Amino acid sequence: MEKNRLEAFSDGVMAIIITIMVLEIKVPHGEDVQALLPLLPVFMSYLLSFIYIGIYWNNHHHMLYTMRHVSGAILWANLHLLFWLSLVPFATGWMGENHFTALPIFLYGVVLLMSALAYWILQNLIIATQGSDSALRKSIQQDWKGKGSLLAYAIAVIVSLWFSWLSLMLYVLVALLWLLPDKRIERALMTR
C-alpha cells in the first residue's frame, strides 16, 4: 500500500472526529450572554480536544512524511491510534457536560494516555520498518517530549479522582508543550 492512502484515510477520520465534537455543542435557547454561560464548560472541553486533535494531525502528518513504505503492522498500529482518537469526542462531551468532575476527567485522561501510547507504538513500528538510518529515528532521538507526555498523562489519570483540577492542568500543560509544531522531523528531512 502506498502511504498516501494511509494519510488520506487518517486525515478523513480526524476531520470526522472534529466534526462530531463540534456537533455536540448545542445551540442555546436564548439570545443573550446568559444563555451562553452554561455552554462554557462544553466549549472549553471542545477547545482543549480540538487542540489535541490538531496536534495529533500535525505530528502524524510529519511522521508519515518520513516513511518510504507501509507495512501491515503500520496499518494496524495506525488504526489503533485512530480508535483511541475516535473516543475523544465522547470523553470531551462527557467532561464538558459534567463541568469537569472527577470521573469524566479520569476517562478523558485514559483516552489521552492510550492515544499517546498508540502514537508511540506507531512511531516505533515506523522506525523499525524504515531501518536504523530512518529520518524519523534520527529526528526524535531521545524523544523527551513523547515520554514526558506519557508520564504526565499517567500521573494525571492516577490523581484525577482526588485532584481533578490538577489532572486538568496537566492535560493543558501537555497540550501547550505540543502546541507549537515539532520541528525535529522537518530539520532531519532538510539535512538529508
From TrEMBL:
Protein name stated in the entry: Uncharacterized membrane protein
Cellular compartment(s): Membrane
Catalysed reactions, semicolon-separated: K(+)(in) = K(+)(out)
GO molecular function per UniProt: potassium channel activity; proton channel activity
Keyword Transmembrane helix (UniProt): yes
TM region positions: 12-29, 35-58, 70-93, 105-129, 150-180
GO annotations of cellular component type: membrane
InterPro entries hit by this protein: TMEM175-like
Domain of life: Bacteria
A Pfam family reported for this protein in Swiss-Prot or TrEMBL: TMEM175
Membrane-related topology note: Multi-pass membrane protein
Swiss-Prot/TrEMBL keywords: Ion channel, Ion transport, Membrane, Potassium, Potassium channel, Potassium transport, Transmembrane, Transmembrane helix, Transport
RNA-binding as UniProt keyword: no
Species whose genome carries this gene: Thiothrix eikelboomii
Family of the protein in this entry: Belongs to the TMEM175 family.
